[in-house]
Design goal:
153 residues, mainly alpha, 5 helices
């Protein structure tokens, strides 16, 4: 609660400064929200690391975050290249069907690229996502309607 209070104070202070002092308008509000969120994340991470008494911050926090950033950047480049090339040469995005197909293919490729990279880099979060997907798929198989077999004659 204290962290949220300080984050709110930072948000309001930066927003007022950005809007009235520096005349940034809506961009100033966005800047205030981002800075307050960053300050809140830093404060919460500091409290978490103190509570769990983690000494190896690099192994616990820095490497996984760097791996996620790398995976995100590579996925963003893949999605951007795919969007540009499919939009230019394959799909007619002036129609809704082409736009939906382009979006679906690009999002699917980006998600596949991100999850593959995180698995390859050894992030435990990717294994957690895949185990959740397996559980959901097995639940759908379990709740699928039964198919009646014809009687044996």
């Amino acid at each position: 609660m204290v962290v949220s209070f300080f984050s709110l104070i930072i948000n309001i202070s930066v927003a007022l400064l950005a809007i009235f002092r520096f005349q940034l308008g809506v961009s100033g509000l966005a800047l205030a929200i981002v800075l307050a969120g960053l300050a809140q994340a830093i404060m919460l991470m500091t409290l978490l690391l103190r509570r769990i008494q983690e000494k190896n911050i690099v192994g616990f926090l820095v490497w996984p975050v760097l791996k996620m950033i790398f995976s995100s950047l590579v996925s963003a480049v893949v999605v951007w290249l795919l969007l540009r090339s499919l939009d230019r040469y394959v799909f007619d995005t002036s129609r809704i069907v082409g736009l939906l197909a382009l979006t679906t293919i690009s999002v699917g490729a980006g998600l596949f690229c991100y999850l593959t990279l995180t698995l390859f880099l050894g992030l435990t979060q990717a294994r957690t996502v895949f185990s959740l997907i397996k559980r959901v798929v097995s639940w759908f198989k379990f709740t699928a309607p039964l198919v009646e077999l014809p009687p044996i004659e």
